[in-house]
């Protein structure tokens, strides 16, 4: 015997999405529910970009620390 398929009626909930910052319900064509959430998102993006730059600088410094003795030894210093 096969399983009976259950027919799910269309949802009575209107088309919407949730704000990525606070989770509030908002219109599907909006990116954020308020100016405050938009400011919070902009600050997060700025902080993430700053952190990414710091990581790149640290990576370059660590590579220099590791490779500088090898280069100096190769040059005969």
Structural write-up:
It is a single chain. By secondary structure, the chain is mainly alpha-helical. The protein has one domain (about 15-75). Helix content is about 55%, strand content about 5%. The protein has one helix and two strands. A two-stranded antiparallel sheet has the order 1-2. Strand 1 (about 15-20) and strand 2 (about 25) form a beta hairpin. The longest helix is centred in the last third of the chain and has 41 residues, at about 35-75. The chain is elongated and about 80 Å long.
**Structure summary, number of beta strands:** 2
Largest β-sheet summary: 2 strands, antiparallel
- Count of helical regions: 1
User: Which bin fits the share of residues in helices?
Assistant: 40-55%
What is the radius of gyration computed over CA atoms, rounded to a whole number of angstroms?
Answer: 27 Å
Terminal CA distance reads 83 Å
Number of domains: 1
Silhouette? elongated
Name a few traits of the molecule.
single chain; 77 residues; mainly alpha; two-stranded antiparallel ribbon; 1 helix; 5% strand
Strand and helix map with partners:
Blueprint: E1 17-18, E2 25-26, H1 35-75
Antiparallel strand pairs: 1-2
Offer a concise description of the structure.
The chain is mainly α. It has 1 helix and 2 strands; from the N terminus they run ββα.
């Amino acid at each position: 015997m096969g399983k009976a398929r259950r027919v799910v009626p269309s949802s009575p909930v209107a088309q919407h999405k949730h704000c990525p910052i606070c989770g509030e319900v908002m219109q599907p064509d909006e990116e954020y529910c308020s100016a405050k959430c938009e400011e919070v998102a902009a600050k997060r993006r700025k902080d993430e970009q700053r952190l990414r730059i710091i990581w790149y600088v640290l990576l370059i410094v660590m590579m220099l620390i590791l490779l500088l003795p090898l280069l100096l030894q190769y040059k005969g210093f």
